[in-house]
Amino acid sequence: MSNQVTLLSAVLLFPGGLFALLFGLALKGADRRVAARLQGRVGPPLMQPLFDLVKLGFKRTMVPSTTASETVFLGAPLVGVVSMLIAAALVPISGVYSPDPMLGNLLVLLYLLMVPGIVLMVAGSASGSPYGAIGFSREMALMLAYEGPLVLVVAAVALRTGWSEGHVISFSLTEIVRHQQVHGAFLFDPVMWPAVAAFVFFYPANLGIVPFDIPEAETEVLEGPLLEYSGPALGLFKIMSALKAVVVLGLGIALFMPLAPSGVLGLAVWLVEMLVLMLVGVTVVRVSVGRMRIDQAFAFFLKWPLLFAAASLAVVVVV
Prior knowledge:
Pfam families: NADHdh. The chain is an all-alpha fold.
């Protein structure tokens, strides 16, 4: 019973649940605020994403009456939120929190990270909107492009950790973090530098920001799969996005740069790392470049990130 309460707390309160949601919204707010300053604007308050979420909670959810599949239309965002709540509880915080093996390991986290993209595709299809259909096809193409490099990156990290610990491969994020605390972060291991580069390209695409916001491009397909959503249903997508930001950035820290402090200091260091990743890898990128076409993004991921990830895996196997 005690173990079940602990698991439920991890999913609903900390490090997932309420903590991940509030921190994810704060990251989104910091992104918008800093982006505005870089563009010479004042920008919104830091907690504007939270204010937007509260406002959506008081609005009506409109379901297209003739074209939408109502059950799928309303159920899709709920599935996305639940998947990210579980995923957030799988991300370790160095010196503060280690996920329970009963929740799953790195492989489970990989599967969960695919759910938001699938949810967007299902939502776009269920709405019956032609813009949703276009967003569906773009999201599917982009996922096929960036998931391959991520799998190779994870394989390289798992092999590097497993062989160093005396077994073939390790998909335990707890063991991956502990190994780096003892032997040094993979960020400073030349063998892993190509994998780091591949992940740097992956996470802006997974978070759906410029130049990889192609499925939801406002100026082209008017938010694509989200065009027909409103009220609490749209709010669930905002919650899913905020949670996914914490999961993806937290995964990057666990794979390549977990630091050793414990307790309050360890949590503070982790929060600062997350903020730096968000502002450098997301904010600066999206205000500096324009949106790619889907064919350009697809070719890009099958060229550079895939090459870097494959090179890192090959070097790990040889060394």
